[in-house]
Amino acid sequence: MSADTIAGWESGRRPLTAVPIGQMLVHRHRLMQMDTVPALLQALDRALEADVLLACALDDKARVEDSPLGAWVMQRDLVELLAWPLNHAPPQPIRDLPAAPRRRRGPAPSGPELSPSERTRFFTQMRRTAEQARGEDQFLLRRQALYLSGYDDQPDTPE
User: pTM of the full predicted structure?
Assistant: First the structure.
């Protein structure tokens, strides 16, 4: 794949979730043939899930009851990837990698980033989701929205 494609994924200009599944499987198998560290391949799978969750949280038109947060239990590897643009702490598989020389020109982010307006939209949606998800069948949705809201560094977050 071209360096432009990879740069688009890294910058968020081209969401990884926009890649057709078949093409993603081809890329994954190529990475396996290149002896990519298995933990990174697993992180790639979780990154797709994290992208879906972030995209839904940033969708202003999304209905709370349709949030994928209530559809699956987030495990540590997914939470670490999802939290990376929120707390700037790389997930364990990334921290365990040896430092690679930077071959890119110009400034490049050290990890995924959300703009200030995207951060505001994300946390507003998490708060709204936590407040509206009160039904018995929405326990998981409420719990996970509250958990993710905890990454907000605004002074009123504990309230």
Answer: 0.77
pLDDT of residue 77: 87
Assess contact for 91 and 84: CB atoms under 8 A: yes
Structure tokens of 121? 């939209």
Cβ contact 74:82 at 8 Å: yes
Output the CA angle 119-16-102, nearest 5 degrees. 85
Buried b or exposed e, range 10-46, using 16+ CB within 10 angstroms: eebeeebeebeeeeeeeeeeeeeeeeeeeeeeebbeb
59, 138, 79, 58: CA torsion to nearest 10: 10
Q: Looking at the predicted structure, is the pLDDT value of residue 110 above 80?
A: no
104 has pLDDT over 70: no
Q: Exposure string (b/e) for 116-145, b if CB count within 10 Å is 16 or more?
A: eeebebbbebbbebbebbeeeebeebbbbb
- Determine which of 31-40, 41-50, 54-63, 97-106 has the lowest per-residue pLDDT on average: 97-106
Say which amino acid occupies 144: Q
Residue 24 CB partners (closer than 8 Å, separation 6+): 16, 48
With tokens 């949280």, the residue in question is 57
